[in-house]
Write a structure and sequence with these properties.
It contains 17 helices and 13 strands. By secondary structure, the protein is of the alpha+beta class. Strands 6, 7, 8, 9, 10, 11, 12 and 13 form an 8-stranded antiparallel sheet that branches. Strands 2-3-4 form a 3-stranded antiparallel sheet.
């Protein structure tokens, strides 16, 4: 197609019709999935880890704007395969909704927006907008799962630095004992938020400043490695500063510097180091319009493409509502049973309280049991008749530990009878000593028993899609670690003994939450 023909098409106002159809289709899609839009926006606004997501949409708009001259020379066309892409993304959304995985739903929502863009504007325009469309996926808040790994990496790098600096230090999981102070390498100190933000920034720089894929790969690797190293140096500096000026001054300065200055300094240093390797001029065209004039098959009118795409997407929430309506009701009253060989006992005077956190559960049960040998085990249970937003069995910040809890995870332990085991500690208010516990967690979803959070998602999805009960239960057994009574092995032995007394987890839970089934 010649430039003269393209100009004639533009004069006939083809682009405005397609843009109006795209705006109406995208608005309908966002309205249809408004709950996910609200959830994403709330995370962007309230989470320091994902604050950078607020800037992704404006950056995408800028990327499209910089391509406007080339786009004006491409003929937009409605395209049936774009409707199929939208339908496929809607099916992924349904799977994420069935498994109560917000991340999958949110990724699918952005994929649906990409699908309707392709459906209304066609494949040639989609190729021209390939990077802006792909970059839009950075609007999805992802990366929380990096925090435990980066906590361990930070500890592993900080300890040698402290020894080289002559600071006496020992480590217990994520707790570093240096001099008179204990330092927790918490999730917020793992550097995950820095790495996630640098990935988004790095991808933008890789596209706009580099042409060589090899240089882009090296740059993206640096955007991951350098922040991790810098975070370890920051943590090391905080501990050293605490030895010199006190922990209050050191941590206060650390939060200010790391939040407002450190990120900018590292980002500027990376840019300065890579500057001489930039091989893409600012005025280079991101695509060649002459190569994006291929004939298009399976064309549709833009309005029809938009209506079909929204209709295909609407099937997912309608199916989700039908699945939710099949949830089995739970009894109004349930209770923990008596256990052979164990008696209910009151907590010891002055004991530091612990309880799991499961907001939105239909039932919360908690009791302490003791046996003739002096062993004591806390049994906690949270039951859901069905899961939903704000009512999730295994969500971030819920479970054995809540976000911002006085209890902190020190380290995971080998599984106990299939349950996820971990060691947690806190500071007692009076004496200042460390109180330690072992907590073991099992989940019962439908007819599945697991100790793995990820398996909970799969089990939830399978239970819903096959028309199961949708009942979901979290069971926790916990025992205080008493150094004078055998320490960690004795606490683990007490939990094992109590679990053996109540029998297999699945039937034990079912007898509590499904007495009439």
């Amino acid at each position: 197609m010649s430039d003269t023909t393209v100009a004639a098409v533009v004069e006939r106002n083809v682009w405005p019709r397609h843009l109006i159809a795209l705006a109406a289709t995208a608005a309908a899609l966002l309205l249809l999935f408004r709950a996910d839009v609200a959830a994403m926006t709330r995370i962007w606004w309230t989470s320091t880890t994902f604050g950078h997501c607020l800037f992704i949409a404006p950056v995408v708009a800028w990327l499209v704007w910089t391509r406007r001259a080339g786009l004006a020379r491409i003929v937009p066309t409605g395209w049936a395969p774009g409707v199929a892409i939208t339908a496929g993304a809607a099916f992924v959304w349904l799977l994420g909704d069935a498994g109560e995985v917000a991340l999958v739903r949110q990724v699918a929502l952005v994929a649906m927006l990409a699908g309707v863009t392709i459906a209304v504007l066609g494949p040639n325009v989609a190729r021209a907008l390939a990077f802006p469309i792909a970059y839009a996926f950075f609007m999805v808040p992802f990366g929380d799962e990096l925090e435990p790994v980066l906590q361990d990496v930070t500890v592993a790098m900080v300890m040698p630095l402290l020894h080289v600096a002559g600071v006496p230090a020992s480590v217990d999981g994520v707790l570093i004992h240096a001099g008179p102070y204990y330092f927790e390498v918490a999730e917020a100190c793992s550097g995950a938020k820095f790495v996630i933000a640098m990935l988004a920034y790095g991808a933008l720089v890789a596209n706009t400043c580099f042409s060589s894929w090899r240089r882009r790969a090296i740059w993206m690797a640096a955007c991951v490695i350098v922040p991790v190293l810098a975070n370890a140096v920051r943590a090391f500096g905080t501990i050293v500063a605490a030895q010199r000026w006190g922990v209050a001054a050191a941590t206060g300065v650390d939060h200010i510097v790391y939040g407002w200055v450190f990120f900018g300094v590292v980002m500027a240093a990376l840019m300065a180091a890579a500057w001489r390797w930039f091989d893409r001029a600012p005025d280079d065209l991101p695509f060649d319009p002459a190569r994006l004039r291929r004939p298009v098959r399976m064309m549709l009118a833009p309005a029809i493409a938009g209506v079909l795409a929204v209709g295909a997407a609407a099937v997912a929430p309608a199916t989700s509502a039908s699945i939710a309506a099949r949830a089995l009701a739970m009894p109004h009253r349930i209770a923990l049973p008596d256990v052979a060989g164990w008696q209910r006992v009151a907590p010891a005077a002055g004991a530091v309280a612990w309880a799991p956190w499961h907001p939105g559960a239909d039932h919360h049960l908690f009791a302490r049991y003791g046996d003739a040998r002096g062993q004591a085990v806390d049994w906690a249970l949270a039951a859901y008749a069905g899961q939903g937003e704000g009512r999730k069995l295994a969500a971030f910040g819920t479970g054995a530990l809540r976000q911002g809890d006085r209890w902190i995870r020190v380290a995971d332990l080998p599984a106990i009878d299939g349950g996820h085991a971990m060691r947690i500690v806190t500071r007692s208010g009076g004496g200042g000593g460390t109180v330690e516990r072992i907590v073991v967690t099992w989940y019962r979803v439908g007819w599945t028993v697991t100790g793995d959070d990820r398996s909970v998602k799969w089990a939830t999805m399978a239970d819903r899609l096959r028309g199961g009960t949708q009942t979901a239960v979290a069971m926790h057994l916990s025992a205080v670690v008493r150094p004078d009574a055998g320490g960690v092995p004795a606490a683990v032995a007490a939990i094992r003994a109590f679990r053996a007394a109540i029998g297999p987890v699945g039937p034990a839970v079912d007898r509590i939450v499904r007495p009439a089934y």
